[in-house]
Amino acid sequence: MSCLMVERCGEILFENPDQNAKCVCMLGDIRLRGQTGVPAERRGSYPFIDFRLLNNTTYSGEIGTKKKVKRLLSFQRYFHASRLLRGIIPQAPLHLLDEDYLGQARHMLSKVGMWDFDIFLFDRLTNGNSLVTLLCHLFNSHGLIHHFKLDMVTLHRFLVMVQEDYHSQNPYHNAVHAADVTQAMHCYLKEPKLASFLTPLDIMLGLLAAAAHDVDHPGVNQPFLIKTNHHLANLYQNMSVLENHHWRSTIGMLRESRLLAHLPKEMTQDIEQQLGSLILATDINRQNEFLTRLKAHLHNKDLRLENAHDRHFMLQIALKCADICNPCRIWEMSKQWSERVCEEFYRQGELEQKFELEISPLCNQQKDSIPSIQIGFMSYIVEPLFREWAHFTGNSALSENMLGHLAHNKAQWKSLLPRQHRSRGSSGSGPDQDHAGQGTESEEQTAREGDSP
């Protein structure tokens, strides 16, 4: 039955946006499989990553058995592939959406370009398939399926690979974050100052890079991989370790799925290289590099978006903005993202403490409070970038809206600081009173940390 459903859905021809509803119906369960089960390790994949120190982690209740640990940390679906090789076909349950949920998901997709789009609600309405559903819709609405003559079944298979290679156990770096970044990227691609110059290739690159920019993220940062002598850190010589892995994993999935196999070889090679350039730009350690270049271009007024090189640079800036746009969302969503990323930081800190490793910056729950982390991040990372983005857009309505949310959210976190100091002060475990005003130190810690709060 599952094969028939996938084949039937693959016959949908998207001739107009009204047919997007069929795409949502198709994506009721991205876990549908044929008789061959889950494919084996993809080409170019890396060997099993053995974080044996995690076997006895305090989060064993969430990570579970040794097999689940292997699946979580394999970086290439090691466990599922090994089950297939042993002849065990995964028993994936069907998770089809009822009509009420489909109707609400369709309604949300009609407003996907709105900045107050609630990705958490959309993820629930699509039964945890927000990334696949969103990308299928955006590829259709931007005309990419028709322009690049993409096979719908192949596109779906590729997007399933991407979504499944995000680790749902990560509080922050998971498929919902990828969907949120993709929705933000869609909004930025519609900015009038940029939209009129973009080619279909630019749009496809921007959406693919946003969707896959953190794929297979292990939930720990680059310094952790370096100090545990991880083979990826050695492979990439401690430079943009995670970003390089996200890029190479994406290329592996593109090749395995054969999504672009019908395109000329030169074109696919160019797409792979440009995807790498976009994903590598999300390395927070390169923040000043890109910010300095953007300021110089805007000061000199020498951006020529008819030029492919300049368009690519602005796509890099747009992706960087999308990746760290959480503080620019409405407070209810921004707060939830802040709590999620800090929970991921704190988990790493507890792991480092348990195994007597130096606790990474921002990962010590006893010293680094959520408000202080967020205030420093907003002040020294987010605000400078989004001010320049607003300059580029000519202070568009979206830019003004984002800066307004950013100012409001920063004030909200500041209002929470005294309360937190008082509640922790009695136990003697609270941060110093001036922790929130740590200035450049906060910026340097965030950069060294290697991921964005």
Characterise the protein shown here:
- Residues 97-420 form the PDEase domain.
- Pathway: Purine metabolism; 3',5'-cyclic AMP degradation; AMP from 3',5'-cyclic AMP: step 1/1.
- Belongs to the cyclic nucleotide phosphodiesterase family. PDE7 subfamily.
- It catalyses: 3',5'-cyclic AMP + H2O = AMP + H(+).
- Zn(2+) 2 binds at residue 214.
- The protein has 453 residues and is mainly α.
- The protein has a domain at 99-324: 3'5'-cyclic nucleotide phosphodiesterase, catalytic domain (Catalytic domain of cyclic nucleotide phosphodiesterase 4b2b, Orthogonal Bundle), CATH 1.10.1300.
- The protein is built from 23 helices and no strands.
- Helix 8 runs antiparallel to helix 13 (200-212).
- The longest helix has 29 residues, at 397-425.
- The chain is globular, with a radius of gyration of 22 Å.
- The relative contact order is 0.09.
Describe the structure in brief.
The chain has about 450 residues and is mostly helical.
What's the layout of helices and strands?
Blueprint: H1 2-10, H2 20-26, H3 60-63, H4 66-73, H5 78-85, H6 99-109, H7 119-125, H8 130-141, H9 144-147, H10 152-164, H11 175-189, H12 192-195, H13 200-212, H14 222-227, H15 231-235, H16 241-257, H17 265-280, H18 287-300, H19 308-323, H20 331-354, H21 370-393, H22 397-425, H23 440-449
Helix pairs in contact: 2-6, 8-10, 8-11, 8-13, 10-16, 11-13, 11-19, 13-17, 13-19, 16-17, 17-19, 18-21, 21-22, 21-23
